[in-house]
């Protein structure tokens, strides 16, 4: 114990051993001590030395500590010491304990101290990485650690969470792979979120953040372990945006699970979790106090919304999320924040970006955004308020970029919105008393601020994107330049500014302004021959472009030269040769003489070789570090990629090739028209074929139903026959055992009452049957009348099939008639036997006779119905024969065939109803016969013999009595 006192800070008994010696002795104690207390004290001592002697403890004691974790599972205290020691070895204190002192930043600012500190940090990180690799060499060590996390004891679970987090930070991919293949590994870690101790739950969030980084498989498992539900519950419990660091950790974990993971995004949407995000953005009216944590939380919440509607997602998934956000009111809540006062600038900027992607490409959301008004007097549309910020040079740069992105998303695939923006520039719609979006764009386009020029040009270009109608409408816009001078068109004013670029007063604004105007003109004139004609009509434009391209200017002007080459190429490619002086061929000759084809193509290639072009082509959102870098628009890069090749080919083609190409185009157009006609014909034939197939399938299904109904009826008749035979045998056996005459008479009275009720039901059934037969007669007469005026011809095969079906129905009716005849014979036999019985009284006999009379009437009525059914089948057969002999045209035949099939179908339905009624009547007749047999138990032959024997015995007994 003196040894441990020396290690733990007591008075030394002799000379102090070195750190390495002490650690070696402690390791020997851990390995050799048989008492748990000695091992526990040794591990505690290693823990105290692990921070100061990190390398020595890690090198000598790691294997012993892992052995402790494997063997001493019953003692939570020693497990906690061992886990803490391993944590200190793998993770340095500086990473987990950041310096909060105020003089931390000044130390880093010193020229010597900062590099020394960075070098020390890198060395410590290398040591942690080495020990992490050593620990995870055996995958069982990580599995053991996951098992220890199931311990509820705080001294085991919390150090285990911290150790596993440190392992993930040091060697993330390797540890993720081990956990992924470990049975229930991720599920054990998910249980940490349900721990009632907040410190474990919060550190569990940090652990899951590290676990889900860059691993889609683990992200899916965590999501399907109900992570979304738990995280959203924690965010709500902690106060949503007003919560603390725990809310931030939950949001970071949600971002890990959803970003670039389409499966989890779909699961999040299908689970209706988007609806639960709406309360996050209810910031209230008092926006004066925004803490740093609230700003951070709300920023992450907005990023989470953007992840669900990011342009990089699949279009279907994005559209579905946009629809859900509109339906649950999330978009409306974001627009409320957008128009609120007192919102911090960074939150306002991120909200604008979020609203942009929520409405991008969604017509419903774009229409709603167009209807949003700012709370001003008088109210102004939100679009106008945002554009005012975009063209205001005093606004922050990032805010102006966000407004431009919002305007672009509002017009993306929104021809209705494009028309509304362009309409505000037309003379018939200009309102002098209000500020419109078009006025703001024109004001920004010709202002002294180059950034406003560029933003307005790009915004106006998006109003023309893929919209030929608006390109032509914009040609009508007239601008008043100064008093006493006639107005000029917007197109002419843009070209005037380009040609007079030297007069722009602001230094450094020349290139940015000219690039913006050139992008606008290229977008405007592409695929619009009328705009090209207007541009070429000005005699100064083509000489200006050729002069710009042919000059040898500096590096900054190369981009302008490339855009001028692109604009001149558009004038060639989309030229309709309406101007004699500037036809395609003459422009090509001008390029060859003044510029040179190779030089022209080289200048055109300067655009795509520019570094900022590649950045702008990556994503739709304009993300620029400085205003000077705003040179290219994302949609414009697509246009350049589309036109560069075709313009190059157009410049190199000769006039003969152009003529051939025109001929080929005409031929292709004719071919396309022929193909279109054939396509329409094929569509019509396909629709007709589909209709015929549906009719055939309907008739086939009806035939199958009829066959199944007939099969069912046959089986029921056979069952009734079997039941009849069984009851006949039973009645023969039971008659000899019955000796209670009065009891039988009482039962007979009850049965007679039931028979009366059933006969009344039969009368109602016959009434219904007569009504249906009347309707059938009317249908037959109408068909016979229609036969005289309609000329129909059906397929011989189909008519034959119908005749077969009718014949099968006729045979079925005949079989049922035979069954009824057999039943009549049985009734007559029963009647003859009933006359001989003595068990039934006179009154009951009269009632039975009455029932038999009614039964006879029912049977005669059945025969009449059978005759009418035969008449119906014969009339149908006659109609089918007449239909088979008809000789009309094919088109009329087809239409009349459909009518006939419909009539036949209705007739089949009527016959099915008749058959069903006949079957019901047969069942009622069988039931009546059975009840008559039940009433007359002595009707069978055996019963007659027994009755006579009994009578003879009684007479013999009387004679014997007389003799005595």
Query: What is the topology, as strand order, of the major beta sheet?
Result: 1-2
**How much β-strand is present in the residues?**
under 5%
- Radius of gyration, in Å, reads 48 Å
How many H/I helical runs?
43
The gross shape turns out to be flat
Uncertain residue segments: 1-13, 94-113, 502-509, 737-748, 787-796, 834-845, 939-945
Distance between the termini: 132 Å
- Secondary-structure-based class equals mainly alpha
Q: How many beta-strand runs? A: 4
- Please state the average pLDDT score: 79
- Helical coverage, percent range: over 70%
Q: State the major sheet.
A: 2 strands, antiparallel
What does this 3D model show about the protein?
There is one protein chain. The chain has 964 residues and is mainly alpha-helical. Among the domains are: 90 residues; 236 residues, Leucine-rich Repeat Variant (Alpha Horseshoe); 241 residues, no CATH class. It has 43 helices and 4 strands. It has a two-stranded antiparallel ribbon with strand order 1-2. Strands 3-4 form a two-stranded antiparallel ribbon. Helix 28 packs antiparallel against helix 29. It is flat and about 140 Å long. The N terminus is likely disordered.
Short description:
The protein is mainly α. The protein is built from 43 helices and four strands.
Index terms:
mainly alpha, single chain, two-stranded antiparallel ribbon, Leucine-rich Repeat Variant, 964 residues
